[in-house]
Design brief:
single chain, mainly alpha, 68% helix, 7 helices
Length: 114
Amino acid sequence: MDTFGKKITDLRKANKMSQAELAKALKTSTSVIGRYERDEMTPSIDAARKIAKILNTTVGYLLGETEQENLFKDPDMLKRLNEIEKMEPEEKNNILSVIDGFIKSVKLKNIAAL
């Protein structure tokens, strides 16, 4: 698994940004960006949020909670998940069971198509 710094470096380059451009967007110095990228320094939560936004990813990806850099970037999906989270446990379990069933069905369909 890549480190926080490696992910920042890779995403910055993928976004065709220099360290100076990222530093300017964060209102910090290039040396701070370099220290982040070398894993010598960890940004504050606020700075990590800003970095994620600038680099079009999520804080979860930068922190290693997921390996998918764009997971939960879809606002419609987030809205749905937030609605499910507000439900009573029994309702939530029912919804998740239905979703699990659809996922399984699609996977089986894709396997059969091979």
